[in-house]
């Protein structure tokens, strides 16, 4: 996992007060006649790694391939779904890419419960950017660049950005005085 760096390269970022979170997510059933959309829109997780526990009959999770196509990701018995988060994409210079994913709950869908575990470092920690060995560097396209989604190597900044985007009304109401991610944060480019 350290991709040519020392095996403990990430340890300091997780050493004190790592900000991991386990969430219990419930998606109610949808009678066939109820329109609209429900679920989770397309996004990438903002942290390092997510371990997602799904019920064995769970449906609706999709991941996006490099060609833009959405692919069903049904559960595998006895296994977690593992999502690469944006901070890990930054740390590996895009060798590991944050996986866009979404949850669909079409009309008629059964209720769904999932348990994601977001494995995150200390909020203030700047996660080190690895120096990839030449062979691996040849296989990476670098960090994805999107003006509307800046990536930050400090986990707290990256997570805050994602929260602001996911909950604009709450931020407009309760966080009018909240600064955006620190000005010192690097805006990473390819
Ligand atoms: O419920 C799921 O299967 C995925 C949820 C998710 O992507 C998230 O909470 O970030
Ligand atoms: Fe997610």
Account of the protein in words:
The structure is a single chain. This protein is an alpha+beta fold. The protein has a single domain (11-149), classed as Jelly Rolls, CATH 2.60.120.330. The chain is built from 5 helices and 9 strands; from the N terminus they run αβββββββαββααα. It has helices spanning 11-14, 86-91, 134-137, 155-166, 168-174, and strands spanning 21-22, 25-27, 39-43, 49-54, 61-64, 70-72, 81-84, 101-104, 112-119. Strands 1, 2, 4, 7 and 9 form a 5-stranded antiparallel sheet that branches. The protein is globular. The relative contact order is 0.23. Mean pLDDT is 89; it is low at 182-190. 2-oxoglutaric acid binds next to β8 and β9.
Could you give me the name of the CATH homologous superfamily? Answer: B-lactam Antibiotic, Isopenicillin N Synthase, Chain
Task: Give start-end ranges of low-pLDDT stretches.
Answer: 182-190
Overall 3D shape: globular
Give the proportion of residues in helices. Answer: 10-25%
Total number of β-strand segments?
Answer: 9
What is the fold named in CATH at topology level?
A: Jelly Rolls
Order of helices and strands: HEEEEEEEHEEHHH
What is the number of independent domains?
1
Separate helix tally: 5
Output mean pLDDT. 89
> How much is the radius of gyration in Å?
18 Å
Structural class by secondary-structure content: alpha+beta
- Which ligands occur here? 2-oxoglutaric acid, fe (ii) ion
